[in-house]
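agent> Task received from the user: take the single chain below, predict its 3D structure, and emit structure tokens. No templates, no multimer pairing.
agent> Plan: (1) validate residues, (2) run structure prediction, (3) serialize to tokens, (4) report one or two observations.
agent> Step 1 OK, no nonstandard residues flagged.
tool_call: predict_structure(input=
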Amino acid sequence: MTLASKITIARICLVPAFVALAFRYGATMDAGSPDEALRWLAVSIFVIAALSDALDGWIARRFDQFSKLGAFLDPLADKLLMGWGVLVGTLVDWGEPGWHLPMWFAIVVWSRDALMIIGLIILKRTKRRIEFKPHFSGKFSTASQFITLAWVTLGVLKMDPVWPCAVATFFITWSAIAYFQQARALMKS
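)
tool_result: status=success, residues=189
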């Protein structure tokens, strides 16, 4: 197993720790005495997990550590981290009551990922070789989701979270269309 794959597995293992700490923080918010140490620990774990995504990618490219396991685990780790991050950002109030992501944003994120999984299953059943090329809109989508999560969890800017959610939704939709076009081209080939 490559070092890059080990880092990816570590990222997957950080997701439940982030979720547990975030919900624990939410419980202290609901009780009226927020434990800010839990908040910062949850946010720190999320940031470490997010940075590990860049690290494992750099290691894989720099040291030619590409593997089938890594190709499977890396996007899975990304989807787990971002999907759970958005869900927690929606269900937990961060810093003050009512300060969270809107539910429609979580639905957008989870729906796009569900559609991508369904598309992969359909392509797999056609017995075609599936080889998706990362599209730059996917990078913008991920970056905008990270910014949106930071907006809510850090609460630095007190402007309504609906605005970064709208920007992220634009990029999520753009990437979904780009990957749909790739899938359609694969089906025609």
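agent> Step 4: summary for the user.
The chain has one domain: 3-188.
agent> Done.
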